[in-house]
Amino acid sequence: MDRRHGLDSKGAWFWSSLAAGAAFVWVLAQTRQASDVWAVCSRARNIYTVDDERPRVNCVAMRGTTILAVGDYGDILEVEPFRPYAYLPHAFLAWIPEFVQVRSRPRVYQLADDSILVPGLADAHAHIIENGYMARLPLKDAESSKDATALVAAYVRAQPSDPDTASWVEGMGWDHTRWPGAQFPTALDLDAEPILKGRLISLTRVDGHARWVSPAVLESIGDLPETVDGGVVVRDEHGMATGIFIDNAMDLIPVPPWSEALMADFFNRTITESLQYGLTSIHDADTSPARIAFFRKLADAGRLPIRLYLMGYIESNEYWGRGIPRLLDYGVQGRLNLRSVKLFADGALGSWSASLLSPYTDLQDTTGLLRYAPDVLKRLIQQFHADGWQTSVHCIGDRANQIVLDIYEDTIKNDTGSNISAVWRPRIEHAVMLTPQDLERFGRLGVIASVQPTQATTDMTYAETRMGPERLATSYAYQSLLNSSSNHVLPLGSDFPVESVNPLFGFYAAVTRLSVDGSSPHGAAGWFPDQRLTRAQALKGMTYDAAYAAFAENVIGSLVPGKKADFVILDRDIMTVPESEILGAKVTATAIDGEIVYGSIS
Ligand SMILES: *[C@@H]1O[C@H](CO)[C@@H](O)[C@H](O)[C@H]1NC(C)=O
Ligand SMILES: *[C@@H]1O[C@H](CO)[C@@H](O)[C@H](O)[C@H]1NC(C)=O
Ligand SMILES: *[C@@H]1O[C@H](CO)[C@@H](O)[C@H](O)[C@H]1NC(C)=O
Ligand SMILES: *[C@@H]1O[C@H](CO)[C@@H](O)[C@H](O)[C@H]1NC(C)=O
Ligand SMILES: [Zn+2]
């Protein structure tokens, strides 16, 4: 008996050990299996998906880098590995984390009722490296030329005892339209500060379309050409250069190229800031070959902390589309794309260099300038199109927009074989000043208008002075552009560093058409209030529409199962709070590919 019992208990011990071991392995397996699944839920259904089928939901669940499920509590509980908890009352799912954390159970985070979760935000038009560059010596706050000069002097004084007075001093951000008299500054203004005398100084205007240099720079250049195609050397009444170089004339200034280390520093500054503001993808609006190589290296090494969509740029009349390979979902996690090119049709309104059909209201002897002869632009655009590149053309003035729409119309007519909206998606960047016919033509042709709402609220102080009331009525016409768009898209951007990196400024400007202090030339209802976007339209412009403009609407841009797990959590509901409270919202977490890259979810 004893023996048998002994045998039996040995057998039981064996079998129970085996069972325990198997259970342990099973639990481990469950732990492993479930550890990459998690969900964020909101009792207030403050998850805005930008998906028409289910615009607001309780939960979004992630598996690894992608979205696993989107829906209300009941929907999520039908999906593995949440199903075992389906017997619980639905709302209980949200409360579990506050009780116990079983490691094998998918983790569920509960948002505070004031918070919201939206798809990762995109900036459809920005200048990543320039933004870091401007951060070194920013001149945005200068109220006059004298002010700007003083800022430069203070910067030079603060440099660690650098005796190398032959090195260049570079800054960015001045805006003479905000200064008394609204006149361009001059080289001589910079000599007012003794410490700047004889120094090589180059200061880029806030919009990147003009540079202000010191007398030493003028001397170093020596003889200047009489005229510059697509640019202007500003001269005084005696024909002497004043120190302002506009658009293509900026190429005459021999500023040294940036080293890779400097570029890395500029990049780091911008991306750190971008993630804090909830950006998960950025369209870089003119990427030189050196920068393409730089981004590519980061992508290869898996060190690209954000999604980038590049618009390659070479200032050249020669076609270069075959010299640089396109990059599609390139690098670790496919975060890098290069399939668009940037071309500049004209300059900017601030420096009277946007190309107009009839003269400027406040400068009757000029209609601005074109940076390419129309036939050269046409040849370039059609060649890029033929080689599979998207074209993104900078157009501010009504003439620039007209010329490029003509080229696009012609190209589309001639190309009946391919599906334009599937393979080309031609873009116009800014699309500021449009004749009523061209406003309609954008929609009819399916040309994507890539606009920056803060451009409207910055320009509103002087746009009427430049173009007069009649032309203004169909300019900055964002609601009309969206309304007429055959693709129903209006991607939004900031053009940073021209404007802030914080996309909430664009959201606020789009829905209010007011300055930050709540005013506008047309009062508290906003500047041309008919052109305001709804909040849903603005959010879609910063997510889905931007993705569409980058051929990525099946990958990012809304919260739909199978898309990348890119999202942002804000501490207040920007979709419903009073307008005056929108800008007070703070990002508490930013996630890219399912990884929290800024802040935290608690
Ligand atoms: C910026 O540089 C710091 C220090 O090297 C690094 O820890 C951080 O991850 C970088 N951030 C980005 C966005 O590249
Ligand atoms: C239009 O297409 C024809 C035939 O493919 C081609 O020969 C011609 O150069 C094209 N014209 C333009 C303006 O692209
Ligand atoms: C063109 O492509 C778009 C998007 O891929 C698709 O929705 C549309 O039906 C296509 N049109 C034609 C005529 O094939
Ligand atoms: C939108 O389109 C409709 C019909 O085409 C038109 O009547 C309306 O005025 C448009 N709205 C705006 C803001 O352009
Ligand atoms: Zn730009």
UniProtKB/TrEMBL annotation:
Domain Amidohydrolase: 113-598
GO molecular function, one term: hydrolase activity, acting on carbon-nitrogen (but not peptide) bonds
InterPro entries, A to Z: Amidohydro_3, Metal-dep_hydrolase_composite, Metal_Hydrolase, YtcJ-like
Domain of life: Eukaryota
Name under which the protein is recorded: Amidohydrolase 3 domain-containing protein
